[in-house]
Amino acid sequence: MGQQQLLLIVLGVIIVGIAVVVGINLFNANAEEAAKDGVVSDNTNLGAMAQQFYKKPLSMGGGGNTFNLGGPANAGFVIPTGLVTTANGTYAITDQQAQSIEFTGTPTAGNGYLWTVVTTVTPTSITTAVN
C-alpha cells in the first residue's frame, strides 16, 4: 500500500509541474499578443491623426490634401511629442510622401520581442502589418 501511495504522489507532482509550465507559456504568449495589440492600436491612432491632418485645409493648420508639405518650415504631418514613446512602444515616420505616410512601431525595449508594426496610411485607408 505504501508504494502505491508514493507512486500517486509522484504522479500528482508531475502533473502539477506540467500544468504550471503550460500556464507560464500561455501567460507569456498572451502578454506578447497584448503588446502587439497595443502597438497596432497606437499605429492606427497615428494613422487616423495623419488622415485628419491630410484632410484639414492649410488655413486651419492642416495639410491641404497632402501628408508632406515640403520645406524646412513645415514638413507636413509629425508625430506629437507625447506619442513618440508610449507604454506600448516607440513610433517613427519611416516614409512620408504627398499621398502616403508610413509609421513603424517598435515594442518597448526589455521585453525581448523581435517584431515591429508597420502602418501605411493613404487618404482613404490605413493598412497595418506585423513584421
Describe the structure.
This protein has 131 residues and is an alpha+beta fold. It is 41% helix and 19% strand. It is built from one helix and four strands; from the N terminus they run αββββ. It has one helix spanning 2-55, and strands at residues 89-96, 101-107, 117-121, 126-130. It has a four-stranded antiparallel beta sheet with strand order 1-2-3-4, with helices on one face. A hairpin with a 4-residue loop joins strand 3 (117-121) and strand 4 (126-130). The longest helix is centred in the N-terminal third of the chain and has 54 residues, at 2-55. The model has no long low-confidence stretch (mean pLDDT 91).
> What is the H/E string?
HEEEE
Residue-averaged pLDDT, rounded?
91
How many beta-strand elements?
4
How large is the count of helical segments? 1
Question: What is Rg?
Answer: 24 Å
Any low-confidence stretches, pLDDT <50, length ≥5? none
> Proportion of β residues?
15-25%
Helix fraction by DSSP (H/I, runs of at least 4): 40-55%
What is the gist of this entry?
Helices cover 41% and strands 19% of the residues.
Question: Could you give the topology of this structure?
Answer:
Layout (H helix, E strand, L loop, with lengths): L1 H54 L33 E8 L4 E7 L9 E5 L4 E5 L1
Antiparallel strand pairs: 1-2, 2-3, 3-4
Record keyword descriptors for this entry.
single chain, 131 residues, alpha+beta, rod-shaped
